[in-house]
Structures are given as C-alpha cells and as structure tokens.
Design brief:
It is a single chain. It contains 9 helices and 8 strands. It is α/β, with parallel strands linked by helices and 328 residues long. It has a single domain, classed as Vaccinia Virus protein VP39 (Rossmann fold). It has an 8-stranded mixed beta sheet with strand order 1-8-7-2-3-5-4-6, sandwiched between helices. β2, α2 and β3 form a beta-alpha-beta unit. The N and C termini lie far apart (80 Å). 33% of the residues are buried. It binds S-adenosylmethionine.
Length: 328
C-alpha cells in the first residue's frame, strides 16, 4: 500500500498513473474534481491503449471513481464526462457510492455538441454524458434537513444563471431578476465559438467540440474539450482559491480554466509529453490571464475559400409569386 503524503502537490501535473498517484494523497483534500477519462473506443493517444477488455475497463472505471471519491472533501463536487458505451456502468457505480453515502448524485447532464464524427451507416454522435455528484456531507443529510436551505457544497447559482423567458420574452413580473438556472441539456454550437459562449437572452450553451481550425484548439491532443464546458462547471462548483483536480489532464483544459478563474489546480497525466505541453498551456494562462491560442498555420492547417455551395432547389414561380407546374 502506498504511503500517504501529508501534503497535496497543488500547482503541478503529476506524470504517471492517476490510480497510483491518487493513492499517495490525503483523503478529503479536494474541492472540485472533473474527470474526462479515455472512453475505451479505440482513440489514438500517444501512450495509452484505448482498447481494453470490457470487464477490465469497467473495473478500472470503478477503481478511479473510488479513488476520486476518497480525495473529495465532504463539501466537494465531482463531475464525470463519459460516452454512450460506458455511461450505464458508470452511473450504476455512482449509485453504489450513493448507497454507501460517499457521494450524492445531483444531475445527469447531456452535453449536446456539433462537429461530431461523420458516420456512414448510423446517426452521427452529438452528445456526451456528464454526471454531477457532490461529496458525502450531502449524502449524509437526514430526511428532515433541507438541502436547498443550507447546501453543504458549493453551488454558485448566480455565477451561471441565465435570463429566463419570463424576463426576456413575456415581461412577467414574477420573473427572478437574477435569471434562472440553465437546463440539464447543454447545447453547444460552432458558430458562436471563440469568444461569446453565453448570449444574454438564451439559456443554452452554444459551443461545439473543438474543430482543428479553432484558435483554442492546441492541435497536439486528440480530444481537447472546449474551455466553455469547464468554465461553467468551475464557476458553479468552486470559489477562488479552491483546489480543482483532473485525473486525466490530456491537453490541460480543466487546469487552464481553473488557473484563469483563480482556483488552485492539480492534475495527473500518463503521457510525459502531454503532461509537459499541458503544463505550458496552464503556465501561459497564469502568466497572461488569457487562453492560449494557436493559429491554423502553426498547426499545419491550410485555410482557403470554402467550396462554392450548391444552389438550393427553388420551386419555379411566376412574376406574381404563384407556383408554376413542375416540368416532367
Ligand atoms: C479524454 S483525454 C482527456 C482530455 C482532456 N479533458 C482535454 O480537454 O484535453 C484522457 C487522457 O487521459 C490520459 N490517461 C489515460 N490513462 C491514464 C491514467 N491511468 N492516469 C493518468 N492519465 C491517463 C490519456 O493519456 C489522455 O491524455
């Protein structure tokens, strides 16, 4: 069994297997954990083999979730992003931890994105599952203790509230002037990427997966998440100075956003090269306060005029706008 350190190495990306690393850190020491593990769908990482046997992958998933639950403060929050293939198994394990009063499950969020991979003989994938849980303090509340009155976890409602339709459309006097909470389906579109993620009159998120041409995309990691996704999570579930942990750092999105929002940060990454480059990304944010942007030319992407769009089919009309019979 690993020896438990008294301190947790905040402000670093630990290189190695997150299971081994987490086992060395003190229990109940982290405010917010966000995990985006490999999905076991054959993705090409530089080091990790994303083709494990089913049972092996499920057991590994349960193991790292348990390790995260151990590190989470009773007042902490824990988010897991996962694909269709293992969403059910992951949810079942979270239910087990709920029964053991180690976590309380709060939401099954759907992140709906555009720019999913184009399929040939089935529908294109356009969503991932985001499980939102909080620590043991909420799980141990007695039936008479009302969660909403004095929640034993951070939930900064006003930091992520959006104007409601009562305010923007119906001019309804009953509207909460502070807006409403977003729905549990988060819809993200490419057209509004790179800048404005939340339009004031809308309660959905407009931000796609990151296409290669987007400046935010670093270009050296296969599955970089958009910062907008992490921004909402970190704003609502942590405060300045809190410790945010990501066991699967990848390109460093979670830690870069945490640094920008003045949270303390910590991560694990199996690949030495990913860990090194992610650290550069986080250090850039710390030095400048800004998201690191990479131009297409630096990623080897050639931009040109898009191909001319085909003319849309229009029904023939006479000068008065009446439909003409279609010629056979
Ligand atoms: C889905 S990616 C994370 C992407 C990240 N959310 C981002 O925005 O860039 C998963 C990462 O986990 C890393 N990984 C796989 N197994 C690991 C392990 N046992 N410990 C730590 N990292 C691991 C992979 O190298 C990969 O970079």
């Amino acid at each position: 069994m690993a020896e438990i350190a008294t301190n947790i190495p905040t402000g670093s990306i630990a290189h190695g297997d997150c299971l081994e690393l987490m086992a060395m850190w003190p229990a109940e020491s982290i405010d917010l954990i966000f995990a985006d593990p490999p999905y076991n769908i054959g993705f090409e990482y530089d080091h990790y083999d994303d083709n494990r046997e089913h049972d092996d992958y499920v057991q590994w998933t349960c193991d790292w979730i348990d390790a995260c639950a151990r590190l989470l403060k009773p007042s902490g929050s824990f988010y897991i992003l996962i694909g269709d293939e293992y969403a059910a198994e992951t949810r079942l394990h979270l239910r087990k931890l709920e029964e053991e009063k180690r976590l309380a499950f709060r939401n099954w969020i759907i992140w709906h994105y555009t720019f999913g991979q184009n399929c040939k003989l089935k529908f294109n994938r356009s969503h991932a599952h985001l499980f939102y849980c909080v620590g043991s303090a909420a799980a141990k509340l007695k039936a008479h203790q009302k969660l909403t009155k004095n929640p034993p976890f951070t939930f900064n409602r006003d930091a992520i509230a959006v104007p409601s339709a009562r305010q923007t459309t119906y001019n309804d006097a009953r509207a909460n002037p502070k807006g409403k909470l977003p729905d549990d389906t988060w819809y993200l579109r490419p057209q509004n990427a790179e800048g404005i993620y939340f339009k004031p009159q809308e309660d959905t998120w407009y931000q796609s997966r990151l296409a290669g041409t987007f400046k935010e995309r670093q270009g050296w990691h296969p599955c970089q998440l958009p910062e907008a996704l992490l921004e909402r999570i970190i704003k609502v579930s942590s405060n300045e100075g809190d410790l945010v942990f990501d066991p699967f750092v990848g390109s460093g999105t979670t830690l870069a956003v945490a640094a920008r929002l003045k949270r303390r940060w910590l991560g694990c990454e199996l690949s030495k090269e990913y860990a090194r480059r992610a650290l550069e990304r986080v250090q850039h944010v710390e030095a400048t306060g800004e998201t690191m942007q990479v131009h297409c030319a630096d990623k080897g992407i050639q931009r040109g005029k898009p191909k001319k769009k085909p003319e849309p089919h229009r029904s023939p009309k006479d000068k008065q706008g009446n439909l003409l019979p279609v010629k056979p």
